[in-house]
Amino acid sequence: MTAAVPHGAAPPAGASATDDPVGSGLLTFAGVLLVLVGALNALDGISAIAGSHVFIGDAHFVFGDLLAWGWVMLVLAVAQLGAAYGVLALRAQWARWAGVVVLVLNAFAQMSFVPSYPVWSLTIIAIDVVAIYALTAYATPGRWGPARSEQPPAPGGDT
């Protein structure tokens, strides 16, 4: 049986980031959102490449056309699914940051895609923001400096 660790305290020696239920839950949530956004972007990209009629027909883009943005969405989808694999299966730190980069790029790409499908693009941007939060909110204990319990007390605090 494992003992409870107070919030902000360092985990016991030999424990990994996945032993922390809060961190593990946030990483799993972020990984699932990456899979969701990757799948939705794949559908979006394939629909745009195939010339589907779900998009606004007379949309004007700053640069490129619907076909070009379809390929951009498809490439982003592959990158998101790769980052999701790294987050869910490998629990790799690099995958978390790769996921953040890909999600930020996706949010910007979706802003460019708004003229062709506004509601869809804004929904994906909202999911991107939540996924970025989930990837960045939890810091692996021991990797980002001392735990809160190891920090000196604030001046004027209890001694």
Automatic annotation (TrEMBL):
The keyword RNA-binding belongs to this UniProt entry's keyword annotation: no
Transmembrane stretches, start-end: 26-56, 68-88, 95-113, 119-139
Record-annotated DUF7144 domain positions: 27-138
Pfam family for this entry, one: DUF7144
Domain of life: Bacteria
Keyword set, alphabetical order: Membrane, Transmembrane, Transmembrane helix
Matches recorded under InterPro entries: DUF7144
Protein name per UniProt: DUF7144 domain-containing protein
Species annotation: Kitasatospora putterlickiae
